[in-house]
From TrEMBL:
InterPro entries: Acyl_CoA_acyltransferase
Protein name from the UniProt record: GNAT family N-acetyltransferase
Top-rank taxon: Bacteria
Length: 178
């Protein structure tokens, strides 16, 4: 008799335990920060949710924040180059105008506070589109993935501390102008 062993990721049911009201409350918090009503739309699938925040924009004001929540129900790679092995948040887009007023910083602090409190997800991943964007995310503790493309470097932030793991990895990234 022949036996086949098929690898399956650990299903954590992280998405089944989440109350989507948290994301509506986050929209209210974002509205206070932006000074305009922020709407949220949530697209739910069995192993992922896509959450989109937007505020009506004028010529000078703009707000869009899009991210996905992934439960490792199947093995796949995210756009940011990470394999899903644990409940993960993948940030796709953050656009806040006007810049230079600290609005994006306040948005991210509020987002990280809520995601850490929730304790359902292990890490947040993203791709930095530029050197300035990478510097922005580094201020919140995001670090470069060890092997990453110099054009769109992958970054991550662990929401649950790694006990006993060394944090001495340093990666130099060079950006090439296209």
């Amino acid at each position: 008799m022949e036996h086949w062993y098929i690898w399956q990721p650990k299903v954590t049911n992280a998405l089944k335990t989440i109350n989507d009201q948290l994301y509506h409350k986050l929209a209210a918090d974002f509205s206070l920060i932006m000074g305009a009503e922020v709407s949220v739309s949530i697209l739910k699938h069995e192993d992922s949710w896509k959450i989109c925040y937007q505020a009506p924009h004028s010529e000078s004001d703009l707000f869009t924040f899009i991210f996905s929540l992934y439960d490792p129900a199947k093995k796949e790679y995210l756009y940011s180059g990470f394999e899903i092995e644990e409940p993960t948040i993948d940030i796709h887009k953050l656009l806040v105008l006007p810049q230079g007023q600290g609005l994006a910083t306040q948005i991210i602090y509020k987002f990280l506070e809520k995601m850490t409190e929730m304790q359902s997800f292990s890490r947040i991943v993203l791709r930095a589109e530029s050197k300035d964007e990478a510097k922005f995310w580094q201020r919140f503790g995001f670090q470069f993935k060890a092997r990453t493309s110099p054009y769109l470097p992958a970054m991550s932030l662990n929401l649950k501390p790694d006990i006993g793991k060394s944090k001495s990895l340093h990666v130099n990234i060079r950006y090439k102008s296209i």
